[in-house]
Amino acid sequence: MKVLIIGSGGREHAVADAFSRSSTVSEIIVSPGNAGIAEDFRCLPLNGQDEIAGFCHDKAVDLVFIGPEQPIKDGLSDLLRAEGIRVLAPSRDAARLETSKAFAKQLMLKHHVPTASYSLLRDESAAREVLAKCSYPIVLKADGLAAGKGVIICSNESAALQACAGLFRHSAGSSGILAEEYLQGWEVSLFAFCAKDTFQTSLFAQDHKQLYDQDMGPNTGGMGAVCPVVAAEEYRQEIEDKILAPVLTAMKELGCPYEGVLYLGLMITQQGPKVVEFNCRFGDPEAQALLPLLKTDFMELCLAMTEGRIGKLKLEWMNQAAVAVVLAAPGYPAAYKKGIRIRCPQMDSKVFFSGVTREHSDLISCGGRVLTVMNMADTLDNARAAVYRDIESTDFPEKVYRKDIGKRKNLLF
Questions:
Q1: Is this model's pTM higher than 0.90 or not?
Q2: Are the C-beta atoms of 54 and 244 separated by less than 8 Å?
């Protein structure tokens, strides 16, 4: 079977790697991909939805896998389905669980799904009124997509007003800002493989959002991930029964059943699991830690979602731990340095590329998060040791990375 993956980041590199282990996949194309992905898989630019659909028809593509959220929001999956092309991604309407945080909150409150309390701020006048009465810290979130940069934790009213002003100027905040209760606890990620109102869930993973060790510094798109998180297993049934099942049932009742990968960002609180956010795709860098542990044929998993038989599929995972560490450019997540030459020697770890291009025979950094180094082992400590050993041998001057991925106390393997 022939697969087309839409996207250009480390997540898409990990997805391509998962498809490459399938016995039924004969060809993998990534569009647009990047110079690092191109070392392993064919990459080519396809400009616009019509060109993607035309390519699928001309080349008899059997499955399109959409990696990032923006093309899903733009309706690519809807167009491909209308063209009779098999695609794995939710519809634009179903993806509102991610593309509109206000929509997701309203749905959760209506169906009694545990999440943080919130107020929706429509303009700066409303913000001033609400923020004057808040208990701090609070979490501010742009209603729309913000490429991982739409969430700000504020410790006082002055900081919150300043953050709101910036978010309202961003297109993602133009439809409003959510002022959310700050949840106390520890975060964990879970992925649901969905076919309308049936699903199966993955291993638990954990992202590390802050830029610096000990969870200090600004939030990023993710500086590393580990999988599995055994301490979260006791909450699986509660999450499936009180969060996943009612949300998927509600989406079906709204006329936009969810098909594809649904990411649950969760906070484990003293009251139990609560939803931090939904994403309509795999997380990045969680996918780089999760997918290498999958024993079940990934193509078969994708087909089971598109054919509505996910409940009958046997999901199997390796009895190992994976650690994935992001190497970023200096300055990230703000303005970052570009044009740094990168050389990755032969190593035990797997490298998933994101922000790279090519200059002559060299890979050159062109993004904030540049690559992810991942390794698996029988224990978390052994996986960590292998990853950091290979990071030290990576020739990436001025690389920025956390030294403590996998050292949080709740991570037990």
A1: yes
A2: no
